[in-house]
């Protein structure tokens, strides 16, 4: 089966505050239906890359100053976040960002605000989200503020799913979670990928877990891709083992 390139990031430079060059020519491809991991340590530029794709840099006083970003061949650098949502691209931010005073279910429903296909269809997606995340169903009436870190991460992913995305940009899903919960979250990501054909570009410091669940990986260091390859090969690569597999 041939794969189509869904996202093509081509040689992008990103500058913050007009002076700080953070991405120094990053190129990566995300094939449709795959899970691609963007790996690297603190400050390597992972979040910046995701923000560049979903056009969230302006709020951080950042800008793409070179290169191009294409979604199915269409240039997307100038699209607004809501135009990206219309094209099926949703970002789940680092740190989860659930609305603390809303219940889990209310949080999930905020993810459906751009949909125009009616209440019944939204309810169907909600049922599907609860099917993937039984913990959220149990906690549906609880205020997000009183749920665990793992439940909030699940809620953030569930909320993205409420928009029926084609691609989810997932920033640091393992952050601050216990290993067992991290495993649970990644299992669900893989499930969504295989059963719902959702494509994922995920940024992770936890190389070990990311390479167990991803199809392909890119390693970012100081704003440059220093290595990329099939996840299985990266896992067995001596440099990756030495420098990255202990992280996370
Ligand atoms: P982390 O896992 O710590 O989030 P990261 O790989 O996601 O790391 P980025 O958050 O993309 O890295 O940051 C890359 C570099 O850009 C860092 O040196 C960071 O200090 C800098 N940076 C990030 N956001 C801004 C900003 N709004 N203004 C100026 N510099 C920024």
From TrEMBL:
Query: Gene3D superfamilies under this entry?
Result: P-loop containing nucleotide triphosphate hydrolases
> What CDD domains does this protein map onto?
ABC_TM1139_LivF_branched
| InterPro entries, per the entry | AAA+_ATPase (IPR003593), ABC_transporter-like_ATP-bd (IPR003439), BCAA_Transport_ATP-bd_LivF (IPR052156), P-loop_NTPase (IPR027417)
Task: State one molecular function term (GO).
Answer: ATP binding
Key word Transport present: yes
Name the UniProt key words of this record, in alphabetical order: Amino-acid transport, ATP-binding, Cell membrane, Membrane, Nucleotide-binding, Transport
ABC transporter domain location = 7-247
Question: Which family is it part of?
Answer: Belongs to the ABC transporter superfamily.
This chain's protein is named ABC transporter ATP-binding protein
What organism is the protein native to? Pseudaquabacterium terrae
């Amino acid at each position: 089966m041939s794969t189509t390139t869904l996202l093509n990031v081509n040689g992008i430079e990103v500058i913050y505050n007009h002076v700080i060059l953070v991405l120094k020519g990053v190129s990566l491809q995300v094939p449709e239906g795959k899970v691609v991991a963007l790996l690297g340590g603190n400050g390597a530029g992972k979040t910046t890359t995701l923000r560049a794709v979903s056009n969230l840099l302006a709020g951080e006083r950042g800008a793409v100053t070179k290169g191009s970003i294409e979604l199915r061949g269409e240039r997307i650098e100038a699209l607004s976040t809501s135009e990206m949502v219309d094209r099926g691209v949703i970002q789940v931010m680092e740190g989860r960002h659930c609305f603390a005073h809303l219940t889990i279910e209310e949080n999930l429903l905020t993810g459906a605000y751009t949909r125009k296909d009616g209440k019944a269809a939204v309810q169907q997606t909600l049922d599907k989200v609860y099917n993937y995340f039984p913990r959220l169903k149990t906690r549906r009436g609880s205020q997000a503020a009183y749920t665990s870190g793992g439940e909030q991460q699940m809620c953030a992913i569930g909320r993205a799913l409420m928009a029926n995305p084609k691609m989810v940009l997932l920033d640091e899903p393992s952050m601050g979670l216990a290993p067992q919960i991290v495993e649970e979250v990644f299992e669900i990501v893989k499930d969504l990928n295989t059963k719902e054909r959702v494509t994922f570009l995920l940024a992770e410091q936890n190389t070990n877990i990311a390479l167990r669940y991803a199809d392909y990986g890119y390693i970012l260091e100081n704003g440059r891709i220093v290595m990329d390859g099939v996840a299985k090969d990266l896992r067995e690569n001596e440099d990756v083992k030495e420098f990255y597999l202990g992280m996370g």
